[in-house]
């Protein structure tokens, strides 16, 4: 659990605030804030996971098996890494998957989004809205709400299992194909389950819509925008009017070394920016599923939004979208065994880009003529949000300087949780030049 240092913090005065081990996020991080003359002097978000060096570890590995390896970067969104890496390998070798394979990828991403958003919203964030430390502290009157939360999460798990083999570290998805096709009985059962939790998703949207949390920031929102809000195969759009092809994304990113953190941060065209559900909703809400737009119009009307806490509301809307889009795909398609072209690994360079639960995930791979990886670059969402998170915390603390430190602590943690960071994913690379 987190704790505040007791070092001299005086409301409206000076001193330090330190939160060690920020709770209810994925991975480990600390926060160090120095206050001077009644204003925040600096904010340092310290991602404290051990460096993992996976961009170096993938070198020399066979490209055909690389997606299954990189899916181990993250447990909760392993399907995101699996899908993005597969796309990068295919682009490097010039392989075009079949329409059915691309459809199964959409469904596996929908399942991951439902499950991962449910984890973040209902287990990490929901207790904050009810003044609880965790869902274990909810009373009997709230049992039904928790049951509905787990029902939604379970449905996401089952969608991933049927389509991709497992909810975590899927086994059916490969470069260029799926090794198993769901049968009709599995699909029919899944459709019934998706329909059974649809109403629950709408109930949770109301909770996150009416919670009253607010921190508006004039930052740049960046997202991969697709014509069906399917989290892959689109163009990069930002809230300031840029439109970028996927293979140009790296040209717009600027690495920011944070010597106190185990993760490199990033800026977009030299400026802080934010990726994630709020960016997707700000830039792509018109492409939500028709049923979602009809039943969530009250909640989508909040977007475009500058309120960082609306990242939670955007995720809640995306849960409904993924349910609706999945039902349509499952009901309108018959999945059949395919004899697709064999994947031949050859020399080349390619990128993969998808929207993971936390935001834009980017892979760049170079493959040698021996079929092995020569070079790899992987940029995860939390790295891209790190600079924006620090600046958001600075503004939040400055606006609440007159409050007790325990209350400031609680507000800081709610804000960081709203970004849905994954510290473990972010801590893969760090270069420090010591002088």
Structure description:
The protein is built from 14 helices and 14 strands. Strands 8-7-6-11 form a 4-stranded mixed sheet. A 3-stranded antiparallel sheet has the order 1-2-3. A 3-stranded antiparallel sheet has the order 12-13-14. Residues 1-8 and 424-435 have low confidence and may be disordered. 43% of the residues lie in helices and 17% in strands. It has a single domain (54-384), classed as Cytochrome-c3 Hydrogenase, chain B. It is an alpha+beta fold and 435 residues long. The radius of gyration is 21 Å and the shape is globular. α4 packs antiparallel against α11 (310-332), α6 packs antiparallel against α11 (310-332) and α12 (381-399) runs antiparallel to α13 (405-418).
CATH fold title? Cytochrome-c3 Hydrogenase, chain B
Biggest β-sheet strands, sense, barrel: 4 strands, mixed
Instruction: Identify the overall geometry.
Output: globular
Say how many strands there are: 14
**What do the pLDDT scores average to?**
87
Order of helices and strands: EEEHHHHHEEHEEEHEEEHHHHEEEHHH
- Compute the separation of the termini in Å: 36 Å
For the record, the count of structural domains works out to 1
In the CATH scheme, the class would be Mainly Alpha
Look at the helices and sheets and give the structural class: alpha+beta
- H/I helix tally: 14
**Percentage of residues in helical conformation:** 40-55%
CATH architecture: Orthogonal Bundle
Give the low-confidence spans.
Answer: 1-8, 424-435
